Amino acid sequence: MDLYGYTPETSIPVSFAIKQPGASHTTTYDDNTPGTIFNRHIEVNTDLPFHISGDYSMSAAGISRSCEVNGLTGNISDSNMDNMLANQQAAITPNAVVSYGFYDAGSGYDDISYTSHHQNYAYTGDGNRPDWMTKMVAGNSNAGTKPFSAFVLPGAHDAGMNTSQNIAEVVSNIKKYGFIATAIFGSLALVLGVAIGAIVTVLSIAASSLIERVIINLSITQKDTITNMLNLGTRYFDFRPGYNAKIQGIPVASGDGLYHQHNMIPGMAFTDFLNETVAWLKAHPGEIVVVSLGFSGFYDDAMKPDSETLKNAINTALAGSDIVYGGPADTSSSYNDLIAAKKRLLFLNNGVGFNDASKYDSYSDGAYATLTPDPILNQLKQMHTTPDSGDVYTVLQLQGTASAVSALWPSLAACTSDATSPLLMTKAYFDSTTYPWTEANLASFNSAYPVVILNDFVDPQMSHIAEDATLLRAGQL
User: Fold this and answer.
1) Which residues are listed as membrane-spanning (predicted)?
2) Domain containing residue 414: CATH number
3) Residue 401 banded pLDDT, cuts 50, 70, 90
4) The dihedral of CA 353, 359, 363, 364: what is its sign?
5) 20, 126, 198, 245: which has the fewest Cβ within 10 Å?
6) CB 399 within 8 A of CB 370
7) How many domains does the chain contain in total?
8) Is the confidence at residue 393, as pLDDT, over 80?
9) Looking at the domain assignment, is residue 211 inside a domain?
10) Is residue 296 part of a domain?
11) How far apart are CA 396 and CA 444, in angstroms?
């Protein structure tokens, strides 16, 4: 097992523990060194034929999770963190927040050692995370007078892919209509570079639970509610609102509204995202949220709404509040001026027809389809500190797209665990490389342009990094 922990201060440590099979004592590994990612590899042993399973646990910020690990097979049992979407959600308390995840390696993928290890991470944050902008400016007044562009924004990649609420219906339609199966799995085949017919043949006859797990592993990028993402400190949301795709006139899922779309897999409803964000902003009057609407990766153009539909949805969500939405030009205003003007929901959109803002982005298909962080780190190192001409802000993507690594899928598709997402597998392993780089380099980026650090499965460490970098960019540290 690979263990990863982060704490910003000694008062909220992260602790991992293992009681080996047949042992009378428990060995504990504590992360009480603030500001760095703790990493430790442990093995669960066996005492054949008498003792096989060890008792493993993790605790942080008042929460505790545990499981049994079979030292012979590696199988997980008696676990309360065995489902990515059901029991791996962030915990928010008055004094601390914690984000955690557990990846079940199953039989593993042995090309790289860590992919055959169970992965458990727990990152804590201080009690300021839900209001970190407010508290930061209160303690460093000059930060409030600088242009908002000096802020570094922790961001959620594919923010609306945090729910499987529509996936069961997609699976039902896959089983019902062969042409929907061909369209959905054809997109998967193109990503993996394998024959469409082979994937359709195998998955179309598979059990619904297996198909649902494959789609979740392919499409889910976040596992917390929007409210919890905000409380962890996230302030930038990559949201892609679109109509549900229709294949030969049949929608992949019901509902004629707008949903976050991952190719043609629908996630959270756009109105729910807006309403939840506005409700949170009303409860946190000193915070500013930035949203980037876009249509990247859509199956076809018929899924794209027009700009008036999007603006009407935003205005409806804001009705009854005193919050005003803004756009790219507002990043040159100071935090204090934006708060005074009630402009606390800014849109830096990507080709949707209003408030569009070209971004200087580190992402490339080739570099990010990886099981190691090195290609991503190389992309980050090649980024200019000032965006290219015409670009409004910089986006540094920290997550990989391991789901595009074709050799992974046979073992992942065959696994019966609900904690086998390849993005969950790479999360902490990549963070331990990319986060130190961002900490060391964010302050060097031109403060006339906002910088976003974007990741899957957002966590409080991102906002601690962003806060420190913002103060440096504002000349406060």
Assistant:
1) 177-203
2) 3.20.20.190
3) confident
4) positive
5) 198
6) no
7) 2
8) yes
9) no
10) yes
11) 13
Give per-residue pLDDT as tens, 276-295. Answer: 999 999 999 999 999 999 99
Tell me the C-alpha distance between 274 and 347, whole Å: 12
- Judge if 146 and 90 occupy the same domain: no
Do residues 221 and 122 touch, judged by C-beta distance below 8 A? no
Rounded Cα distance, 81 and 6, in Å:
19
CA pair distance 82, 415, nearest whole angstrom: 13
Q: Is residue 415 part of a domain?
A: yes
At 246, list the tokens. Answer: 């229709």
**Tokens 């008062």 sit at which residue?**
11
